[in-house]
Specification:
The complex is a heterodimer of chains A (about 325) and B (about 260). Chain A is α/β, with parallel strands linked by helices. Chain A folds into 2 domains: about 5-235, P-loop containing nucleotide triphosphate hydrolases (Rossmann fold), CATH 3.40.50; about 240-300, 2-Layer Sandwich (Alpha-Beta Plaits), CATH 3.30.70. In chain A, about 35% of the residues lie in helices and about 30% in strands. Chain A has 11 helices and 14 strands. Chain A has helices at about 1-5, 55-65, 105-115, 120-135, 150-160, 180-195, 205-210, 230-235, 250-260, 280-290, 305-319; strands at about 10-20, 30-40, 45-50, 70-75, 80, 90-95, 165-170, 200-205, 215-220, 225-230, 240-245, 260-265, 270-275, 295-300. In chain A, the strands form 3 sheets. A 6-stranded mixed sheet of chain A has the order 6-7-8-3-9-10, with helices on both faces. Chain A has a 4-stranded antiparallel sheet with strand order 2-1-4-5, covered by helices on one side. In chain A, strands 12-13-11-14 form a 4-stranded antiparallel sheet, with helices on one face. In chain A, α3 crosses α4 (about 120-135). The longest helix of chain A has 16 residues, at about 180-195. Chain A is elongated. Chain B is about 75% helix and about 0% strand. Chain B contains 11 helices and 2 strands; from the N terminus they run ααααααααααββα. In chain B, α1 (about 5-15) crosses α6, α2 (about 20-40) runs parallel beside α6 (about 95-125) and α3 (about 45-70) runs antiparallel to α6. The chains are: A alpha/beta (about 325), B mainly alpha (about 260). Chains A and B meet through α3 of A and α1 and α5 of B. Bound molecules: adenosine-5'-triphosphate (ATP) and magnesium ion (MG). Magnesium ion binds near residues 56, 57, 95 and 171 of chain A. Adenosine-5'-triphosphate (ATP) binds near residues 22, 30 and 32 of chain A.
Chain lengths: ~325, ~260
C-alpha cells in the first residue's frame, strides 16, 4: 500500500469540465471549467493563478469531491476524487472557511480528528501543536462565531492539517491575513514542503506565489493557459536588457548610433537599451573597447503580473 | 472515535447550545407547569388529567422541536458552507446524513427527558405519584421523534427550511389522522380499485397515530396511561416500525444526496 502511494502522483487532473446551469429555468449555462489539466509532483508547492471567475474554486471543489465533473477525471494518489478514501491523505482549506457558531476551535478540531479516526491522545497533542503554531491557542475555547476573519482562516488551516496530510489544498489561503499572518503562512507552507508534503493553492497575490511556488499554472476561463516553474515563465521571451554606462558623452552616443541602440539620459550617465539577448556579448565588448565605463547590466524580465494579465486578457479575447 | 460519532456528537453539541432551542425549551417547561397547574385546580387533583395533559404536551413539543431544529439540519450546513469542512474529509455522504440525524435526535431526547423529569417531579409534588405507563408513553414519543427527524433530514437535504417545515408539518397531520383518512376513503370510494389505490397511497405516510394511543380508542379498545395501556409487545413493534421507516427515509435521502453538487 505504502509503496503504491509513494509512486502515485498526489494529483492528476485530466481534461476536467464543469458547467453550471443558472436562472429560474436552468437555461443559462456557465462553463466554469472547460478542459483543464495538470498534475502535481510529490513534494512541490504549486500555485493556481487566475483572475476572478477563472474556475479555480470550481476545480478545487471537484478535486475534493464537493462537486462532480461533467467530464474528465481527477485522481488523488491514484484514487478517483469521488471515493471517500481519496480524502484520507488530503487536507483542504476552503475559500473563506465558515464554522459552526457554537463550537470552539478545540471542539471543531477534535471532531475533525474524530472523522479521521485519529487516536485520542495523538489528536490532543496535534491539536495543541496546531493551535500554537497558528497563533489561535488563546482563543481555542471561544465559540468560533466570535472569531475575526484572520482567526477563521487560521482555524481553517488548522483543520486542514489535522490529519498530517500528504497533499494540502488551499483556496485563497492568504486572503484575510495581515502581512504578519501571510509571512507565517508562507513559512508554514515551506515547512510542509520540507517535510515532503505537496501543496496546492490558489491565489491572486502574485508576490507570495512568486516567492514560494515551485511551479504555477495560470488559469483563465476554465483552462490552464500557462504552466511551468516561476523561472521558466518569467524568462519566457525576455524582452531585452538595459545597460547603464558612464563616460564621454559623444563617444557613447556615436557608438550607440552605430550599433542602432536607443539611449536615454540617466542620473549618472546614459541608459542604453539592448534589443535582444544574442548581441549582448558583442555590444559589451564594443563599449569596453571605447573606454566607456559600464555601471550595470540589467535584464528585463516579464513580471508574473504582466504574464498573468496578458494571458487572462488573451483568454478573454478568444472567448 | 469514528466519523459517525464525531459528526453526531458535534451536531448534538451545536444543537443544545443554540439559543433558539433554549427559548423553545423554556416555553415548553412553562406550559407544562402552567398547564398541569390548571388541570390540577380545575379538576380537583385528578391525576389522570395531569398525566394526559403532561404526555400530550410532551408529544406535541417533541414534534415541534424535531421540526424546528430539523428543518435547517442539512440546509444550514450547505448554506453556511460548513459542509465543505466535513465532506472533504474521509466520510461518506450517507454517513454524514446519519450522523447529523443521530446528533439531532440525541439533543431532542435530552430536552424531552428534561421535560419528563419535570412532569414526574410535579406529579410527585401534587401527590399523584408515578405511573409506570408513563415510561411506555415517553418511549412512544421518542420513536415518533426518530421518524420526524428522518423526514426533515430528507427534505432539508434538498430544500429550504420553509419548504421542509411545511412538508413535514403536512406529513405529521396526515400521519396522525391516518385512521380517519382511511375511514373517509372507505366511505367515499365505492370502487375497490380506487379504494385500494388510495390505501396504498396512504401507506407511504408514516403511521404516526401509532405513537399517540393515550386517551383514544385504539384497535377497538380504550387505552389510557392510568387505565389499560398498550403492552410491551406493542412498544417493541412500534420501535421496530419507527426504525424501519426512518431507515428507508434515510436511504432515500442518501440516494438523493449522493451525487448532489455542493456549490
Ligand atoms: N454554484 C454556481 N452556480 C453558477 N455559477 C457558478 C457557481 N459556482 C461558480 N460559478 C461560476 O463559475 C465560474 C468560475 O467560478 P470560480 O468560483 O471557480 O472562480 P475562481 O477562479 O475561484 O474565482 P475567484 O478568484 O473570484 O475566487 C464563475 O463564472 C462563476 O460565476
Ligand atoms: Mg475562488
Amino acid at each position: 500500500m505504502k509503496r503504491d502511494t509513494d509512486r502515485e502522483s498526489p494529483l492528476v487532473i485530466t481534461d476536467l469540465k464543469k458547467a453550471f446551469r443558472t436562472g429560474f429555468f436552468k437555461t443559462r449555462k456557465i462553463n466554469a471549467v472547460q478542459g483543464l489539466s495538470f498534475s502535481l509532483e510529490k513534494g512541490e508547492i504549486f500555485g493556481l493563478l487566475g483572475p476572478n471567475g477563472a474556475g479555480k474554486t470550481t476545480t478545487l471543489k471537484m478535486v475534493t469531491g464537493l462537486i462532480f465533473p461533467d467530464a474528465g477525471s481527477v485522481s488523488v494518489f491514484g484514487k478517483p476524487a469521488s471515493t471517500v478514501s481519496s480524502r484520507r491523505k488530503m487536507g483542504f482549506l476552503p475559500e473563506n472557511p465558515w464554522f459552526y457558531d457554537y463550537l470552539t476551535a478545540r471542539e471543531f478540531l477534535t471532531m475533525a480528528a474524530g472523522i479521521f479516526s485519529i487516536d485520542r491522545k495523538v489528536a490532543k497533542e496535534r491539536i495543541e501543536t496546531l493551535l500554537n503554531q497558528l497563533g489561535i491557542a488563546h482563543a481555542a475555547d471561544l465559540p468560533m462565531r466570535k472569531y475575526s476573519k484572520g482567526m477563521l482562516q487560521r482555524a481553517g488551516l488548522a483543520q486542514a492539517l489535522i490529519n498530517d496530510p500528504d497533499l494540502v489544498i488551499m483556496d485563497e489561503p492568504l486572503s484575510g491575513l495581515d502581512p504578519i499572518g501571510r509571512r507565517e503562512l508562507r513559512e508554514i507552507i515551506l515547512a510542509l514542503k520540507k517535510r515532503g508534503k505537496t501543496v496546492l493553492f490558489s491565489s491572486h497575490i502574485l508576490s507570495d506565489v512568486e516567492e514560494i511556488c515551485d511551479r504555477v499554472a495560470i488559469v483563465a476561463r476554465g483552462k490552464v493557459r500557462e504552466i511551468g516553474t516561476i523561472d521558466s515563465l518569467l524568462n519566457m521571451g525576455i524582452s531585452g536588457a538595459e545597460l547603464e554606462v558612464k563616460g564621454d558623452e559623444e563617444a557613447i552616443l556615436t557608438l550607440a548610433g552605430e550599433l542602432g541602440l536607443s539611449t536615454t539620459r540617466s542620473m549618472t550617465g546614459y541608459r542604453v537599451g539592448l534589443p535582444s539577448n544574442t548581441r549582448i556579448q558583442e555590444i559589451l565588448g564594443r563599449f569596453m573597447e571605447a573606454g566607456i565605463q559600464i555601471l550595470e547590466l540589467k535584464r528585463h524580465r516579464h513580471s508574473l503580473e504582466s504574464i498573468f494579465v496578458e494571458r487572462s486578457e488573451k483568454a478573454q479575447e478568444e472567448a | 472515535m469514528g466519523p459517525l460519532l464525531a459528526i453526531a456528537s458535534n451536531t448534538y453539541r451545536e444543537a443544545i447550545r443554540n439559543k433558539v432551542l433554549y427559548s423553545i425549551v423554556l416555553f415548553a417547561l412553562l406550559i407544562i407547569l402552567v398547564g398541569n397547574f390548571l388541570a390540577d385546580i380545575s379538576l380537583h387533583n385528578d391525576k389522570r388529567v395531569l398525566f394526559d395533559v403532561g404526555i400530550g404536551l410532551l408529544s406535541t413539543f417533541g414534534l415541534i422541536l424535531s421540526v424546528f431544529t430539523g428543518t435547517s439540519l442539512i440546509y444550514k450546513e450547505i448554506d453556511r458552507k460548513t459542509i465543505y469542512l466535513i465532506l472533504t474529509k474521509p466520510v461518506g455522504r450517507a454517513q454524514f446524513l446519519f450522523g447529523k440525524m443521530l446528533g439531532l435526535v440525541g439533543s431532542v431526547y435530552l430536552v424531552l427527558a428534561l421535560m419528563f423529569v419535570l412532569l414526574v417531579a410535579q406529579s410527585a409534588i401534587m401527590g399523584s405519584g408515578f405511573h409506570p405507563n408513563l415510561f411506555k408513553a415517553v418511549l412512544l414519543i421518542f420513536f415518533e421523534v426518530i421518524i420526524i427527524i428522518s423526514i426533515t433530514t430528507l427534505f432539508s437535504s434538498f430544500s429550504t427550511p420553509f419548504i421542509t417545515g411545511m412538508l413535514t408539518f403536512g406529513i405529521i397531520v396526515i400521519g396522525r389522522l391516518l385512521p380517519d383518512l382511511k375511514q373517509i376513503i372507505i366511505v367515499k370510494y365505492q370502487a375497490d380499485s380506487m379504494r385500494e389505490l388510495a390505501d396504498r397511497l396512504l401507506q407511504v405516510f408514516p403511521q404516526l397515530y401509532l405513537f399517540v394511543p393515550n386517551g383514544h380508542d385504539f384497535n377497538g379498545q380504550y387505552v389510557s396511561i392510568t387505565a389499560e395501556f398498550v403492552t410491551w409487545g406493542y412498544i417493541g413493534w412500534t420501535a421496530l416500525y419507527a426504525i424501519m421507516y426512518s431507515a428507508i427515509i434515510l436511504l432515500i435521502a442518501a440516494m438523493v444526496f449522493r451525487r448532489r453538487d455542493l456549490t
